[in-house]
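User: Please predict the structure of the protein below. I'd like the answer in structure-token form so I can feed it into my own downstream comparison script.

Assistant: Understood. Taking the following sequence of 153 residues as input:
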Amino acid sequence: MLSSEDQNLIQTHTAGMVATVNDDRTPAVSPKATFVVIDASTIAFGNLRSPNTLANLRQRPQVEVCFIDVIRRRAVRVRGRASVHKRSEAPTRIATQFEANWPDLCEHMSHYVEIAVSNATQIDSPAYDHGATEAALISANLTKLNDIYGAED
């Protein structure tokens, strides 16, 4: 089950790193930035350009997805079982979420991948273990990103 904190992190940081297994049993990780939360036990992503991920999930539906808030240094790792639905044949409860959250991309999505969540684990940076506060990490990480990308004046 996804806690309200897990759901919030996924809804605000919709890019998840999707881990699947290839035919030769090697790991495959692919970023997907179209995630939606369907309910406390279901998430989904829209397929834009991922033929290998879909093929892997059709053969081996076990999946793990990691969502990261790089500013607060918090994450949630979600494990579950995937079901691949053609967009035109997707259950209404899934299609409705994509239409609400990704209206400009829906027509480009060939499939929706529903993930029935079996486990969700919150992961915090070890910095918290050593006394860092969330406010301090937010400040430090925003400064770092501004240094990398340049702050707008």
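That's the full token string. The two ends are 43 Å apart (CA to CA).
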